[in-house]
Amino acid sequence: MGKVNLEKITAKIEEQLKRWDVPGLSLAVVQDGETAFAGGVGLRDNESLPFTGDTLVQIGSCSKAFTATLIARLATDGLLDMDRPVADYIPDFRLSEDYATLHLTIRDFLSHRSGLPRHEYAWYGSGYSREQLMYNLRFLQMNQPIRYTYQYSNFNYVIAGALVEAVTGLKFEEAMLKYLIEPLGLAHTYVYLDQVEAEEDHALPFDHAQEYTMTGIRRVDYYESPAEYRSENAAERVGDPTGPAGCIVSCAKDMAAWLAFNLAKGKTKDGVQLVRPDLMELIFTPHITTGDDPFLGPERTMNSYALGWSVMNYRGHKMLEHGGSLPGFITSTSFIPDLELGIFVCANMNVSLITEAVFGDIIDDVLGAEDGRWYDRMYEYNDAMFKGVVDFFRSFGGEPLPDTKPSHPLADYAGEYRAPGYNRFLITEKDGQLTADFNTWKPALKHHHYESFATCGAIGELPAGLILTFGTDGTGRVRTLTVMLGREAGLHPIVFEKQGE
Amino acid sequence: MADIERIRKMINEELANWDLPSIAVGIVKDGEVVLAEGFGMANEEKQLASNPDALYQIGSCSKAFTAAACAKLVDMGLLEWDKPIHHYMPWVEFKDTFTTMNVTVRDLLCHRTGLPRHDAYWIDGPWTRKECVEKLKTMNPAWSFRSHWCYQNTCYVCAGMLVETLSGKSWEDFVREEIFEPLGMTRSFFYVEDIANDDNASVGYARLHPTDLTGYKKVDFLKSDREDKAAGVGAPYGPAGSIISTVNDMLKWVQFNLDNGRVGDTQVISEENMKEVHKAQMLMSSALLVPFPEEDMYAYAMGWFIEMYRGHYRIEHGGNINGYSALVTMVPDQNLGIVTLVNFDNGFMTYGASYQITDDFLGVEGGDWNNRWREIVKQVFESAPEQMKALRGEQIEGTQPSRSLADFTGTYRNPTYGDIVIGSGEEGLTFTYNKASSPLAHFHYDTFTITDEQHLLSGMNLTFDTGKDGRVNGLAIGITLEPSMPDEVFLKV
Asked: What's the complex ipTM?
């Protein structure tokens, strides 16, 4: 195995950033126990400021490995047993299925095998607090048998956060600092999303000119939950309710240290075994298969999920990897234990697979493997994925049927619609125009056909063209609003019921 | 292409090093049989040399046939992988009602019901196939449903009965008609009589003492009193391990698997469902036997183990049954299949030879697998007494039984395991379970040790319990062989 050729790698990234219309990226490479690189390529503000090893970024779901490791750290200290039901620790814990409530352990949640689907829009932009989300779990339908299939859900990590709070008596964020970030000496790593601006050297988030396209660059807002509360007073500060799934802010230098800690199987750079070796091994142990992705080809097989990490066979080597995606940031953290190689990459661009290409290219360089053409393949994949998203939501309503109209006057559709566990859908009518108001989004609606209307703007990551269908009961009144809030397999449309009648 | 002469030489040398009576080896590479040969003596008494048509028992390599039979039923539209089996066999119950209502054939075939092995009851036990499956509802789980992987033979018997229920045929007839016949496996059978009465059949051997490393003696076939060929009743545990076959037949089976269910131009079982059978279903936290640095990512498919071996996806399954061991190995990206059959109890040469052959085809030197596997076997044997000692715990000196030994005699019953009979012999108490007996040696207080080294439960302790009326009312013993579980309790009848 060769040492990573940084000159070649960074030159290639520089060239690819232009092709992908990505302002820049933060990059860390750890090899043989040393930080080979902790810096960046391109611009953190898309104007003049370069990415450096200190540039703060939001790592999104790469935080999940931090949360899983925090749980293992608490287990190391004897504060919890990872094989006991979560309900033994969290008062009032309740899922919509009794058996699941009583039996599921933190390993089931951390590995996304709980049977709980994403229910992404039950939290995303909802303004619900962490406590409210935990309460709402009892209303959210579990759509797969327990421990049967992999279903990625941020709610699983909200539960992990609640477990941390229950056994430590601390806010999740405080516990993360006390038990993990501080002992690891990660001085430029933060637990509140808004702290991305805590230091002058931070990256700004960008998207392409249009949603779900791959050209142009425009500035977007940092993601912030409406339930967050910023305060200089740490005790008053309220973090992102789903923080345990994605709240970490860090930089290439600290992420290099984090990778080194993982490669050292839970030992800090000072030689302290922070997490018991068998529990560290458990974090890296596949818990559920996730299926192979034809786009990722013969190089990546035996895909599975461990605890906060995906695990796969990459060209004959066991690789652990996790992506992160928040508006304006795309991240990947990966390491290959038998090569003693770790890579962190975070670009300040919305949903871009360039990160996957970067780490694939670096590993191939170290392996001396033939060119995997990762930049080309991932570009194609990215493009196909975007088309797939847009097509999916359009296909849900089909082509509009000609010459149809709504059965009721538009004003009859106005009202508040509720589904258990979800925030309300408010439909208003003004001057013959219906508008939806859901979580933080307020798209106008245009008539699609019969009782269906299409959104004219995005609801979170759900692109314009999302179909809302109203239902009328036997009394002739509009009673329901049905919408597909996501596109993962096995997801059911959510039915919102009209209130006050 | 590996050097077949070199492989022959390795097998001949290693057969002597392992000190086994015989091994039959088959290799298919890129659709061609490149080796199908016997080495050593299939039957020393009759001076029958091993050969590729000699019958051997394949033990748990039978499980892949049960899984393939299920795949066939899915093809036929009679079974769904993910539909609870309660739908097909409402009479099957588990101790945990949720498991009863939700367990699917996929769960049964990938060993994740939460039940530990619970093997002792059926080895030499008097139960019929249906009674074995009925015992599921009495079995104590060791883990929460689907949370852990644990090898479980009775669940395969259950899957076999599912085949019977849905096909209306015995498991044996279904496997013969739907797999053996279309594959041309003309010397593959199910009944002990088939191997016992065949002119070209091996007999099984084992070491004189369980932990010896050399020397061997002939042993009897495992035969249930319930097996009755004339009546068409197979071994109760059949779907978990009763198949008898040859290297030539098993090579056809391996090729069929490598070809994802195809034989020549005929798709016997759909590619889709064969892939389902070969796909990792339940991840294992570590290797079944020993973790090697060359291996990684252990999982169970359906009737097959999966792991990465030197970066290659490998599908394999071993089998052990009285006097026999077998191993079937496939490396799909090399289009390579290996079959090794030995007429020897727990004969790990199947692993040593198969790993070595795999390396030869991968072009890797220095694996030294036969020596490494022998070293492992040696270590396991050497550490076994210590491990059993640890399980027994510290012996307290200077104690005696609470009462006269005669008061302990009688029959003790457990819903899963049936009866243990405590008798009195010339040198104290005796222990009889199913067909095997052993003397009991006093350990401390009312705890005694099973001493016969040939006994399945050799070295294990049992403890008598006294009720409030002052009488002996039961005994407790770790008969599940699962160290994380509490002892099973047998109540005095």
From this structure: 0.85
